[in-house]
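Researcher: Next entry in the queue.
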Amino acid sequence: MRADIRSQWKENWKSAQLVNFSLVDDPTIWQPGFNLPRQQWSLLNHFQIAQGHCDACKKKWNQAATDLCLCGAKQTMSHFVDFCPLSKINGGLSQLHSAADEAVAWLISCGS
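Model: Structure for this entry, 112 residues:
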């Protein structure tokens, strides 16, 4: 019976319209970075779901006057990770999702 639940979960995951769902091949297993300290795991998830403390979200929530990044572009979570010349990580969101050493170091620098 457990295998049926996992199969159904995988099917539901593949058919859902979720942001960045393609990062997760198998939603029934722990994802990379699961064992990170809570603050880093939480920040990693904010980037993966494209919702967090970026200026675009803050403006939408009436917590910022502008949605612009210091580089002049609209600062979304995706911009911060993939495109911003001031903050992007080599390999972008896929690299960040891997939770490899470089990605964890980048997360730590963002969280401080």
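Model: The first helix runs from residue 2 to 15.
Researcher: Noted, moving on.
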